[in-house]
Amino acid sequence: MAEEWRLVDAEFPDPRKNLALEETLLRALQENPEASNTLRLWRNPKAVVVGRFQKVPWEVNVKLCRRLSVPILRRCSGGGAVYHDPNNLNWSLFMRLKKDPLAAEPVTSFFKLAGECVIRGLKRLHLEAFFKPPNTIAVADGKISGMAMCIRKNTLLCHGTLLVATDLQTLQDILQPKKNVSEGEKPFTRSRREKVTSLEKILGKPPSMVEVREALRKGVEETLGVRVKKGDLTAWEREALEKIWREKYSTDSWNLSTPG
Q1: What does the pLDDT look like over 61-104, one tens digit per residue?
Q2: CATH architecture of the domain with range 3-177+193-255
Q3: Any idea where the domains of the chain sit in the sequence?
Q4: What residues contact 208, with CB distance under 8 A and at least 6 apart?
Q5: Which residues are paired to 161 by β-bridges?
Q6: Pairing of strands 3-8, 38-42
Q7: Partners of residue 139 on adjacent β-strands
Q8: Per-residue pLDDT averaged across 225-250, rounded?
């Protein structure tokens, strides 16, 4: 009998809370032996989301964000900066592993596995995509989804932003990694400027989010050999979410400060 995963589609009007839920679900796997592996499919209001180890002024057009009232936020995973709007579909895999993932396999192999879930899902939408190391899902016309990862003990979060019908011009205007910056002694993760495209541009019209969600769910089932069934947040997760959202993800000290 196939292992059962939980499907969570919880999403909130506050993008800070949506990011807080990512860390909450990862912590749930760490702290609760009964917690199940989870697929989350969710959308965010307009926001720029930088990686855990990025310096905001080096990656983002801060003045434009302020003019457009686009908040600049930080996630718990590494990787580069991304732009969210309601026409993206974000996907997140929360997995408990039998061995320390850093000791078991190279990190790229987990990106490839997660990428295959999305690639198989896109095939259901008649799109041919491929994995581009180290952490990109691309089609012939460009990047369609980037990936980022957070590893803690024997648990792993891998998530990405699938460009369904997003505003690509705003994305390109806001995400402007600066060149020739003096990094000093501390290394920071730098974003890569890449050509991007969307499902809308490829297909000539935007597919329905319902259709894309179902395709990704099926892609996860086929790739991992599991059964994904809709479920709710637990009482522990709801309580932890409120605390993490309020004390961490709603603060400028987390979102905007230079990572230590």
Answers
A1: 999 999 999 999 999 999 999 999 999 999 999 999 876 555 55
A2: 2-Layer Sandwich (3.30)
A3: 3-177+193-255
A4: none
A5: 90, 146
A6: parallel
A7: 142
A8: 97
